[in-house]
Amino acid sequence: MSDITFTKEMKKDYTILIPNMSPIHFDLLIESAKLNGYKVLLLNNSGPHVIQEGLKYVHNDMCYPALIVIGQMIDYIKSGKIDVNKCAVAISQTGGGCRASNYYYLLKKALERAGYPQIPVISLNLKGMNSNPGLSITPKLIFQLLSGLLYGDLLMMLSHQVRPYEINKGDTDKVVKKWSEYLKNCYRTNKGYFWSHLDKNLANISDDFAAVPVDRTIKHVKVGVVGEIYMKYAPVGNNNLEKFLEDEGCEIMMPPLLGFILYGISNGIRDYELYGGSKRHTYHAVATRIVMPVLKKFEKKIDKAISRHKEFIVPASIDQLEEMGKSVIHTGCKMGEGWLLTAEMIELIKKGYGNIVCTQPFGCLPNHIVAKGMVRPIKDLYPDSNIVPIDYDPSATKVNQENRIKLMLAVAKENLEKELK
Amino acid sequence: MNHVGIDIGSTTIKVVVLDDEGKLISCAYERHYSEIVKKSEEMLNHIAPLIKNEKITLAISGSAGMGMAQACGIPFIQEVYATRTAVQKYIPNTDAVIELGGEDAKILFLTKGLEVRMNGSCAGGTGAFIDQMATLLGIGRDDIDYYAQRANKLYTIASRCGVFAKTDVQPLINQGAQTEDIAASILQAVVNQTVAGLSQGRKIQGNVVYLGGPLTFISTLRKLFDETLKTDGTLPENSLYYVAMGTALAKTGESFLLSEAIDKIKNNRGKGNYVTLPPLFENEEEYNAFIERHSKAKVKAIDPKAYHGKAYFGVDAGSTTIKVCLIDEEGNVLLTRYGTNNGNPIQAVKSFLNEFYEEYPYIQIAGAASTGYGEDLLKSAFRLDWGLVETQAHFKGARFFLPEVDFIIDIGGQDMKCFCIRDGAIDDIFLNEACSSGCGSFLQTFANALGKGVSEFAELALKAREPVDLGSRCTVFMNSSVKQAQKDGATVEDISAGLAISVVKNALYKVIRASSTESLGKNIVVQGGTFMNNAVLRAFEKEMGVDVIRPDIAGIMGAFGAALYAREKAKKLGQEQSTILSAEEVQELRHKVSTTNCGLCTNHCLLTINTFDGNRRLISGNRCEKPLSKKVRVSEDENIYAFKQQYFDAIMADEGEDINGTIGIPMALGMYELLPFWHAFWRELGYRVVCSGHSTRNLYVSGQGSIPSDTACFPAKLAHGHIEALLDKGVKKIWLPCSSYNVDEEKGNNHFNCPIVAYYGEVIRANQDLRGAEILDPFLSLEFPKYLEKRLSATLNLPRRKLRKPIEKAYEALDRYHKAVIDKGKQIVASANGRPIIVLAGRPYHIDHETNHGIDRLIAGLGALIISEDCLSYLETKKSVEVLNQWTYHARLYDAARYVTEHDNMNLVQFVSFGCGLDAVTTDEVRSILKEKDKIYTQIKIDEITNVGAVKIRLRSLFAALEERQ
Questions:
Q1: Considering only CB atoms, which chain B residues are within 8 Å of A333?
Q2: Selected residues 79-98 of chain A with any CB under 8 Å from a CB in chain B
């Protein structure tokens, strides 16, 4: 296999292709990358040809997200829209015990088989795996990305909470668009998005959403969405689940992306507690003393912004999630979305979003444990919860998926009617 | 006011009319053959006189009704929810409902917390599946109950899904098992699948109600559910109409005239909700050129009427078809025959031979050979001279036809086989696994269902303008995609073309994993019955962008190869006359079938014994050579799997005394590596250690109700049964620790467990009724002894000093085990003496017989010594691989593979459990490590399936290819 790396020279004129996992987040996140001198292009291409490329170059038993994102990249590269000698591709690598950590290698193999061995693959990870000289993860970049993540989370959560109740259709989307544009511009001009601006912007976003005229006397079915991270957020993967649910008249709640980052850090801390080891001890020390406290400060910022308006629901903090998760699952389950997924289901139930769609790639290994495997005890604790696991796969029909979601919704509507009486 | 409910299922439409009290006034049930608009309209018109001109409420339900309801603006009621509404009204004291439909299975729990469930995407064992099985058995779909009632015994049939079940059913048919027994076994598989897939830890008990077509029409199915669930379920009146009635009961708030509804339905032409692909042929010229090119590939044939003298007979008994070929001394074709076996291959060959003897008295059969699934059966029945593995037969046929062939792909009814040829020998073999099986016969079944012949159906595809994309996962998925597309208005032409493309994609991307033409070869021969379908042929050429050669006898290349083999053998031996039955003997051929359980080892294979006149006997269903009482070429002592099993048996037998308590250890997942460790640990702590023992079919079934995820791997599912076994032994404390990390053998970048092995204790704790017992599943790893001591002390609430000695003993025991395995491995390797060695590589839990289905013995029966990956991995130094190497057990695979490439007498066979996501990563890598040094890679995918026929073919192919190379 080729060992082409992304060099410093390449940084200047290579375009980096990144699959778009969550438009509301990634549209902002790439601006920070651009600000640091990277030429980045978000891939939103979808459709059967994308899946076809994925099936062609990736082992068909691999999980669906791998098939999609690799399919997207190869489809785009083949489309001729980009100079194949002047582009790189980037893929995340968590380094956990789930097979998703192998996407990097699968992508390399796929590019080689498709006839593009010259295209460097950049691994996006925080563990120093497969490092590329052209990519330097500076503290500055990390903070920029983090702020983008916060903005994205806030825009996502509040738009979900406001949109179903807006009186004038389109008002909520206008707020999203306004802020998205504003923030992009801040990043482009490298000002007004961090330090004191961060708190101010978050507060203003919250106020703007609160100012949207709404009618909260209408009762919508409240649906929580959890799942494997890609399937949960990516419209390309989940057949635009968000839109489907909102069109069905639901208010949805998707836990924030920041929670996943915090979860990731906390796992390293727990690893030392459960298994010992000197390397883990070092990590433990750094994470508990520095990383976690800093991140928790950011977590609080979101909390503060949302709390400005009592009609908005604040997401649970990582500590609260851990507590909730512990009631049914050991927080040592750390592969894939791990205990976080279970904890999020409980959080959603407690907040009135007990109708839950749990999205997962067909055959997802961690989800046998933390999703499908934990439905039973959750049901026992919360008998009125209404959870439907949905498998996504290149061959699964949309109709089958929607029919199962509709079953969940039928029960949800009945519960809502009972409640209203 | 009247209330109308329409339930449009995957195969039928049900229409009911209720009055205001919910009393059923009218009901109708009809098959719709995918013409849902026409049929609904017709059925609604039928109730029109009843309703007169009054306003009604009307709603649609059913998997096929969703799209239509949306398109014509009629309220839609989800079908499971409709069932629940109806059951609540008509049978209010119901606790649970089991409803089987054409494609979906549903379970509803109505009391103590409402739960409604439908089967997941990877399951199809319902009405459509039963229909398909009936076709396979050659009986009408309404006869299955009749046969099942008369069954004497049940065979084990995989219940994971329809495709897997079919893989088990097919060989039973070919072995001559009784239709009655197979019919009942199929129904039991449906029961197991429903229970295992849908109960998910909740017991189905109390007042159970059965609904839906299959449960209404098949009384045996109800009986089997009753027996399995230990309940006495009821089939209510109108059991077919609950969905429709629930739909009618729904308060939709809208009322209109029936005529308005009919208009809405009529004017709706739901269309375009499916993905289309480019057509197979752009224009007439392309088509003509294609036909012209392929008409040239012909074998030399001569008129049998004019032929006098010696001939060679070859027969290929496939899963659903039987192929016969007769050649002369030069290899020219005299006679061929291709037909379905109708579940009875012997009858098919008998009729051929009868005709042959009568019509061609001047032709003398000098040699006869059989191949395919029915190789042994036909060889015994007709006293043929030889048998050969089908991959060899296909290879021989293709090479005779085109000596410079370098790639062969054969798609039959059930299987796909591909070979790379180099220097005149097989260089690499690709065979499909269970998931992609049955594609060929699916095309046939589908054509037949539409009342068309296979070739007529294929011709339609060539005219298709917009082939439908039907996916390539498996025939169950394809089937539901087809139905969906039909409902959305796709034409038969487009579906036929879509199916052909799907079959090809399945072969290319799932079986061969090819992404470029170069990876195949220059001279590609395609064969097998499925390639007789021009659409499949064209789809293959188009997808790969290459011209291929299809012999005109593509469908019978296996039989042709067998005949060539017979010719080769006879000439070598100077044989003038075959031992094949004479004309009289053929006419008088009778045979009897009986079954018995083999008692020669713990596998207890269910043997099918065919007895023919003249004391010829064939035993099948065996996994090793023991019941055949042949000379054993490889002893148990030369099989590391047997050694490991014995080693574990000895540990399990050593329970010890209960001084401080008793602990139960389930023989699940990682315990197949760590038992020595934990056994020593607990024994030293003064505990009696009770193990769950060997896995068995019954043990699996006992735990299936608590499996939360039906797509998990079989070893994980078995864990539930092991817990039940421990509870049955009265154990009150169960030990199944969790750990993200395994022992660091310093082979890779990390040393993880897979998610399942890591955390399955949590799943058990969360889903299984432990009958008052307690499960201890603390998170700890063996990486650092001192830290382990700390963790154990904290989780077991014992002072550290008390744990020191037990932990020390535990590590010693584990080291002893590892050393024993390594020593035994060395000893086996040293004793090889020229005999081949197979490195049967997998995971520790693959030593369990219920998991490996005795395949180790099967390999031993083929004459190879067996060692495992952990006998070798320590011999290799850490090297980088082209995947992320971060799982302990998987790292051993790569090292073992590398070691194999350095040793001529060794070959590697990899066990892969279905659903093992990590093996989607490892298999490609192991293959490429082996490939680099020209070693043949053989993968054996195992699950609940007990049929080892396909496995045997795979292994024999490997051995035959190795022999040929030498």
A1: 738, 758-759, 762
A2: 93, 95-98
Contact present, B78 and A406 (Cβ < 8 Å): yes
User: How many domains does chain B contain in total?
Assistant: 6
Whether residue B28 is found in the same domain as residue B154: no
Q: Given CB atoms, is B80 within the 8 Å cutoff of chain A?
A: yes
- The C-alpha of A260 sits at a distance from chain B's nearest C-alpha, in angstroms, of 18
Mention every residue, 6+ apart, whose C-beta is less than 8 A from residue B868.
B640, B641, B644, B821, B825, B839, B840, B841, B842, B847, B896
> Do B834 and B961 lie in a common domain?
yes
The residue type found at B846 is: H
Mean pLDDT in residue range A309-337 = 94
Q: Give tens-digit pLDDT for A233-276.
A: 999 999 999 999 999 999 999 999 999 999 999 999 999 999 99
In a domain, B628, yes or no: no
Same domain assignment for residues B785 and B656: yes
The domain made up of A219-255+315-421 is a member of CATH 3.40.50: yes
B906 bridge partner residues = B837
Model pTM? 0.89
Supply the pLDDT for residue B271.
Answer: 56
Closest CA to B318 of B414, B443, B448, B431: B414
B118 plus B188 within the same structural domain: yes
Q: Nearest-CA distance from B708 to chain A in Å?
A: 5
Task: Confirm or reject contact between A352 and chain B (CB < 8 A).
Answer: no
Task: Show which of residues 278-297 on chain A sit within 8 Å of chain B, judged by CB atoms.
Answer: none
| % pLDDT > 90, chain A | 69
Q: Establish if B616 belongs to a structural domain.
A: no
What pLDDT sits at residue A170?
95
Backbone torsions φ then ψ of A225, nearest 5 degrees = -120, 120
B contacts of A372 (beta carbons < 8 Å): 200, 708-709
| Domain region containing B881 | 826-965
User: Domain check: are B799 and B833 in the same one?
Assistant: no
Q: Which residues in chain B have Cβ-Cβ distances shorter than 8 Å to A409?
A: 78
| A115, A333, A393 ranked by CB distance to B121: nearest | A393
Question: Any CB–CB contact under 8 A between B880 and chain A?
Answer: no
CATH number of A8-136: 3.40.50, 2.40.160, 3.30.70, 1.10.287? 3.40.50
Q: Do residues B917 and B957 both lie within one domain?
A: yes
Residue in B with minimal Cα distance to A278: B784
Residue B715 sits in the same domain as residue B805: yes
ipTM score: 0.93
CB B813 within 8 A of CB B679: yes
CATH number for the domain harbouring residue B420: 3.30.420.40
- Give the Cα separation of B622 and B598 in Å (integer): 8
pLDDT tens-digit series, residues B946-955: 667 778 888 8
Domain at B930, CATH number: 3.40.50
Say if B63 is an interface residue toward chain A (CB within 8 Å).
Answer: yes
Return the domain boundaries, chain A: 8-136, 219-255+315-421
pLDDT < 50 regions, chain B: none
Q: What is the DSSP string of A200-231?
A: HHHHHHHHHHHTS-B-TTS-PEEEEEEESHHH
Decide if B410 is inside a domain: no
pLDDT at B631: 59
Q: Is B650 on the interface with A (CB under 8 A)?
A: no
Mean pLDDT across chain B:
87
Q: Is B502 on the interface with A (CB under 8 A)?
A: no
Q: Cβ B740–A410 below 8 Å, yes or no?
A: no
- Put simply, the answer to whether A105 touches B884 (Cβ < 8 Å) is yes
Measured between CA atoms, how close is A306 to chain B, in angstroms? 34
> Would residue B747 count as lying in a domain?
yes
pLDDT at site A329: 96
User: How many interchain CB pairs under 8 A, A with B?
Assistant: 226
8 Å CB contact of A393 and B709: no
Residues 6+ away with beta carbon under 8 Å from B69: B59, B60, B75, B76
Distance CA A250, CA B224 (A): 41
Whether B221 and B259 share a structural domain: no
